[in-house]
Queue: 3 jobs
Job 1
Amino acid sequence: MKTLVRPRCQDGIALLEAMLAIVILGIGLLGTVGMQARAYSALSDAGMRAEATLATEKLIGVMNADVANIGLYNLAENASPNARLTPWVQETRAAIPGAVLSVAVADQPAQNRYQVDISIRWQRKARSEANRHRVTSYIAR
């Protein structure tokens, strides 16, 4: 007489495989969302740096066209801008919220030029490190 061999019972294995696949998919999706958040943050920082570059180049162009009054373009950090700098300061602060601006003009008579240092500092988040964009340019007399 032959003995009947009963196949091993595998009830629930498909459910276990499906649950494992869902867990792995969830971990992958969380990683993707985290990477997207970091990419958005980096894009925002890059946008602010681009705005700072445009602002500094614009001011250098204005100063180059007004060399006779170049000494009036000095601005200390957190100081009130004069009438010449007010439009530039307002435009820059509109493009870069919370920007701290400074402009230093130094006469270099031996080289027959002026050295212009423009600094724009901003902080994107309250607890993040401050970003600073600094440009040094030379304007001929």
Job 2
Amino acid sequence: MKILSLDTSTEYMSLGLKINEDFYSINIKAEQTHSEIVLPEIKKLLTEHQLTTKDLDAVSFGRGPGSFTGIRIACGIAYGIGYGASIPVIGVNNLLALAGSSSKNKVISCIDARMGEIYLGAYIKNEEAFSEAIVESIYKPHELPEIKDSGWTLVGNAIDEYEREIKNHFGEQIEDVLYGPYTIIESISKLSIPFIKNKAFELIHAEPIYIRNKVAFTTKERKVLNAI
């Protein structure tokens, strides 16, 4: 099985190529250049392994939450490759992919949503699948949700900015903290596999996940926030 995976939801541009049991990846700190480098890097990755998009069985992508523009870039490119090669396009939740990358069974995933907020979800692994303990949503650091039990592992780049607030809220329920860098591209690839049924174009969970309806403050709102 050959799967191309991509994620542009953060400042990093991540690509993955699964060829049967082998996995190859590229992670580049792209900042604001995702749209400029992602297609050349995809071509480079495929060429290195003597493949074209027509040789793929599926394409998967991180569908968010994360950068509004970055999610749209990954979504658009995945759709284009999938339609052109007539292969499935599978979108994978980035918070779930974080949980999958941790190799832990009880995971609180958190992504810095900017504007003083956190994308957060919690997952429990049962055999090979995850169930939700906290449904993904966006929270203020001082308004985090409650969760049952203990033994949780915390993972995600929101730790960089809000570790103290998160730890204060969940307290001894958190057993371990996994610090970055966070590479979820292989997890995105693995989580897409159960949805690949045949080599025909179809969209599976392929709509972007934004969670936040408001993606930017107005100039007036920014002035108010800066004055607080």
Job 3
Amino acid sequence: MRILIVDDEDVALNSVKRLLKWRGIRSVDVCNSGKEAIIRIRETDFDIVLLDLLMPEVDGLQVLEATKPYRPHTEFIILTAIDDIPTTVKAIRLGAYDYLVKPVDNDLLFLSIKRAYEHRGLLIGLSVSAQENKIEVPEAFNEIITQCPRMLSLLSYAQVMAASGNPIMITGESGTGKELVARGIHRTGPAPKGPFIAVNVSAIPATMFESQFFGHAKGAFTGADSPHQGYFEQADGGTLFLDEIGELPVALQAKLLRVLEEKSFYPLGAAKPIWVEVRVISASNKDLNKACQEGTFRLDLYYRLKSAHIHLPPLNERPGDIPLLARHFLKKSCAQHRKEIHGFTPEAMELLSNRDYPGNVRELSQVVENAVLIADTNFIAPHHLGMTQETLSPFVRQLCTLKENNEAHLAFVLINTNGDRNRSAQTLGITVRQLQRKIAAMKKNPRWETILRDI
């Protein structure tokens, strides 16, 4: 184990170094400034970095932010005299493994180092397995089409974490496949034969939350002519998937937290509680760390839901998967629409591979399906994709390519759907409300007013 200690106080450096040596860790380096630490960490593959938070010029968080992307398998443990929740949240968001408040108990520090080292070993093992041994997608996740080493590592990690039955949080942009991963976790977890109940939290009105989640007894309110099982009871013995958990109002988060902690609840109008055994998987495309800092999401609920965390990369960060996915969606769409199309021309595949996908996999699926619907040959050509310079309106064409300008991309989608808001939002992977806001903002710009006036 190779450890770097970063602290601007020599007394602290020497004290921690002696402790680690006494505990049998021989390779311990020290550094007394944030600037030097950034250089050392980028140059050397340390296993663990013990990082002081308060340092002059460059503090611990700045060191973490500047080095973690270059050393994703190095584990950082923050040591600080400041016991501050927002700072803790920010450190974890930036990739810190642990956050310990000085004076740190020696046994607690060594335990944290031991666990961080084990966690690093797990991540490296999964990464090496994916990249060198070319592992396949785990069987439970076979709905996910990928050969991307990063995705394969994530799916292997998900399989390991699934066995515990603990809550798991999945984050990532809209359309990256969060529900597919959740279903895979359910299938490889301790109760694969139990129910899988998927709930879009953002679609439930606040006034209906308790009734929908906890159910109600007959006569609990006007119109309750029969008892109703809520989502938790429906998911008993299985998995409850809470999509868009970040949209849950703060007032209702405490009620959800209580059920997660007590594993029981009272249906509306009921005199006796119901006990359930439910594995909760939550998902969000929002930055929940930021939401915790802003006070719109409870930190205690966040940590309760995040026993393990899986972040799915956007499609543009796994470009090698685009041809695989395109061929998969082509086969699926041909079967659905009873058409016989053998593949893509090289030019069409090049266009698909070089395009931006703000709607991620979902958008790619829609693009391919639209191409299948309009194709009049046995191969998908560029003009079937609606993505050649000739098919762009002159106004959009003179601005830039789709990849270079999100506004041009949005306008292009609107043009090719004849202004259909629902289809455009689906293609872009956003809600109709979000699309309306983007259109309203673009109409304030004179260069877009002409093209958007009648859309």
